[in-house]
Amino acid sequence: MKEFIQLSINAPYPLRTPVYEGSAAQFFTKQGFTLQVMLPSPISSEIKNLRDGKIRAGFIRQESQILILFKIGDMILECPFMPQIIPNEEYATPELTESSRLFIEMHVIDTSSKTLKAIRGFTLNPKLTKELTICVNDIRKSNFISLSPDLLYREPLNKLIKKTEMHLCGSTNS
Question: Domain of life, per the record (predicted)?
Answer without folding.
Answer: Bacteria
